[in-house]
Design brief:
By secondary structure, this protein is mostly helical. The chain contains 20 helices and no strands. The chain has one domain.
Length: about 450
């Protein structure tokens, strides 16, 4: 935490959040600090333990594990029903209705989880002829129900009190890592590692409930409001559809690699994806922590809103470059050291896939702009186009180029909607100017009179 706070203090000197808003700055940077700390610990623990699990299982079984998790993940949009962003927004605006909002959102997510489980099993019955693989998918699908309790984490985020959720997250990550290590030591088979992800979600859910009871209220006061449920679902419709497109982006390549090339190639590709995904928490973290500040700036000061967007464009662009470069050059060492010589075939795909971070990081900022402007239909359209491009390119390139084709398909698919959104309307084209300003650090330069470019 000490080092994270030092970094944030340096950011403060760059006047990222106008110095006139000292209290607001402290509040949001403290929230970012806690979120970053929790995500960093959780991701580090998950990544290094996953590397040990991969080395233990080998390319074939690890490829099957990754396929099962990806296949189930394709239906996560049903599990959430697009509730998360709407819940945070409504809690910020109507804190006095927290019990109705939390209770209604929780029951909606439980209902969505049941839908997701049914959809997963039906899809597996149609695609999978192997009963063992179907069993693994069925068992893994119970994770949707266990994740419904994350409404508590969303409550703490909306109150800018992420330290409470982070304490639970860090503890759960350590326990989850220990469980997987014990399974490795005991020499247990693949199904135990599938179950370990259910244990992860259970520990995190119980911990969140305990923290909520201690710091925020009592779950017994939660109530389901039918009228509120209809409003949330009406508002979240486009987010549900958009979420479907997003999970296709994230998961479909691993599913297609397994179906076309088999378990071992899926294992090699999963390692390349795993390393890149280790950094994906950064844009989502910043989005979660600062989205309320972006929304408030839009409502009060258009110029400040555009400055903040430009700052995020620049921050995301240079973060993606700084993170991708060392991975590109050290891919061989990273694979050999963390996963072992059995996974050296992952190196070429990793060197390509890591550059998907650039459009992903920039796209996260553009998405926040689209959500703030309530341009969800346009966002959905281009995400649909991107998802279609992703699926098409995977089926075209994987048979010709193997897992390298999957990596290239991912980069192109992420860049496609980004460019499409920027060129789709005159107002969106204005975002190109702010994006370039951010890349050139112009919003960070303090001018006379304490103004920022």
């Amino acid at each position: 935490m000490r080092y994270i706070n030092k970094i944030l203090s340096l950011i403060k000197r760059l006047h990222i959040w106008e110095l006139k808003e000292t209290e607001g700055f402290k509040k949001y940077t403290a929230n970012i600090s806690w979120l970053f700390f929790g995500q960093l610990v959780s991701m580090a623990a998950a990544f290094f333990v996953s590397a040990r699990v991969a080395a233990y299982l080998g390319p074939s079984d690890y490829g099957l594990l990754s396929y099962v998790l990806s296949a189930v993940g394709l239906f996560s949009f049903l599990g959430t029903l697009g509730v998360d962003s709407i819940l945070v927004r409504e809690l910020v605006k109507h804190r006095e209705h927290k019990d109705a909002l939390l209770g209604t959102s929780f029951f909606l997510k439980v209902f969505g989880s049941l839908l997701a489980m049914v959809a997963v099993c039906l899809a597996a019955l149609l695609i999978e002829k192997d009963r063992w693989t179907f069993l693994l998918i069925f068992v893994s699908s119970f994770i949707f129900l266990l994740q419904s309790i994350n409404v508590v984490s969303l409550y703490f985020q909306s109150m800018v009190q992420s330290q409470y959720a982070v304490n639970v997250q860090v503890a759960a990550s350590i326990i989850s890592a220990a469980v997987k290590v014990i399974f490795i030591i005991l020499g247990l088979p693949l199904i135990y590692f599938v179950v370990s992800y259910l244990i992860d979600a259970f520990i995190l859910g119980v911990g969140m409930l305990i923290m909520f009871e201690a710091k925020a209220g009592n779950m017994r006061f939660w109530k389901f409001d039918f009228a509120l449920a209809k409003k949330i679902l009406r508002d979240s419709l486009w987010l549900i559809l958009n979420g479907a497109m997003v999970v296709i982006y994230i998961r479909i390549d691993q599913v297609i690699v397994k179906l076309l090339l088999g378990n071992s190639q899926a294992g090699y590709y999963a390692v390349a994806v795993k390393l890149a995904e280790m950094f994906y928490f950064i844009p989502s973290l910043l989005y979660t922590a600062v989205f309320p500040a972006v929304v408030s700036a839009h409502d009060t000061d258009t110029a400040r809103f555009h400055r903040r967007l430009a700052m995020f464009y620049g921050l995301m662009f240079w973060l993606s470059i700084i993170l991708a470069l060392p991975v590109y050059f050290l891919a061989g060492f990273i694979i050999s050291f963390l996963f072992g010589s059995d996974f050296l075939s992952s190196i070429p795909a990793m060197r390509i896939y890591i550059w998907a971070m650039v459009p992903i990081f920039l796209g996260n900022v553009l998405t926040s702009y689209m959500v703030t402007k309530n341009l969800l239909k346009l966002l959905l359209f281009w995400n649909f186009v991107g998802a279609a491009v992703n699926v098409s390119l995977n089926f075209i390139l994987i048979p010709r180029m193997g897992i390298l084709g999957a990596a290239w398909a991912t980069i192109i698919a992420y860049a496609f909607p980004l460019v499409g959104l920027l060129l789709s309307t005159r107002e969106n084209m204005g975002q190109i100017k702010y994006m370039v300003k951010g890349m050139l650090f112009l919003p960070f330069i303090k001018k006379e009179g304490n103004e920022i470019v």
